[in-house]
Amino acid sequence: MTASDRPAKPDSIAGVLANLRRVPRRVRRESREVIEAAVTQLFEIVVRHPGGNTASREYRIDDLARLGGTTTRNVRVYRDRDLLPPPRRVGRIALYNDTHLTRLRLITSMLDRGYTIAHVKEMIGAWEQGKDLGDILGLESAIAGSWTTERPETMSRAEAERRIGDPPAMQRLVALGVIRLNEADSLATITRPKLIDAFNEVRGYGIAIDKLIDLYEQSLPHIDAISQMLVRAGAEHVLTRIQPGAPLPADTEIAELIGMLVRFRTHAVASVTATLASSIESTIESMVSGLLTESLLH
Q: Does domain 58-143 have CATH number 1.10.1660.10?
């Protein structure tokens, strides 16, 4: 059996595409879920294995620093302080792999959050011992370990109703797709658990959930418009490489394109988040200034 005759691994790009081709064309056309599931798998594979395969890539220190968003001097400092494991040595050349890159991105993220190197070392040690560091640091977004930023949570309908605590609000969230109901099994899936957690925290200040849902509903079209504008720029590049109706390019090229979109997502989210944060801060300062001026004048 030659290499080309061997079945592709299901957790590879070739495996996902092969499985998709086995689905009857009629089913592919009529069921969006089939395509959506394949797309999700493709992005997950490329995020986990940027080279498009399961082999860990190796980097020289300059490339590692560039991909990790830092400097070669910092990489050496982190290595000397045992924050990074030793590289593989080939003669006088030091080679780092994807494990080093993941760790470097985590270190950079933690330092950007204001932690000291001593804190980073202590907390990475806790992470390696199996403690739940992800919830504290937002580890998933720090190392780009997943394509989607949120994982839906499935529970009993009764539990979902308890989390919302308001039957009319529950109905509105179902209509908006934030919650999906499975009547047959009496289950509910919260598609945006972080949104619900944020709602419940803000409700603690006395703001009604109806008001929060109104804000979400009103802002959603604007967010979608910004998303479409940003993604269109990346899509134009992809469409120059993948023509609709034409045969797909090689798996390595597909992996490169998806990898580009993953990085595009990261930078787009960071730039929009920073811009939104700055705008909100300015608006809050202006509002508070106005309130204080009004109170002092009267």
A: yes
Pairwise CA distance, residues 254 & 261, whole Å: 11
Other Cβ atoms less than 10 A from the Cβ of 269: the count is 14
Per-residue b or e along 13-40, where b marks 16 or more CB atoms closer than 10 Å to that residue's CB: bbbbbeebeeeeeeeeeeeeebeeebee
Nearest CA among 77, 13, 89, 83 for reference residue 48: 13
- The per-residue pLDDT for range 173-186, each reduced to its tens digit, is 999 999 999 888 78
pLDDT (tens digit per residue) in 225-248: 988 888 887 777 777 777 777 777
- Distance between CA atoms of residues 13 and 41, nearest Å: 8
Q: Which two tokens stand for residue 228?
A: 């479409």
Give the pLDDT confidence of 264-294 residue by residue, as tens digits.
776 777 778 778 888 888 888 888 888 888 7
Q: Which of 150, 124, 128 is nearest to 137 (CA)?
A: 124
Strand partners, 58: 97
Taking residue 96's Cβ as centre, other Cβ atoms within 10 Å add up to: 27
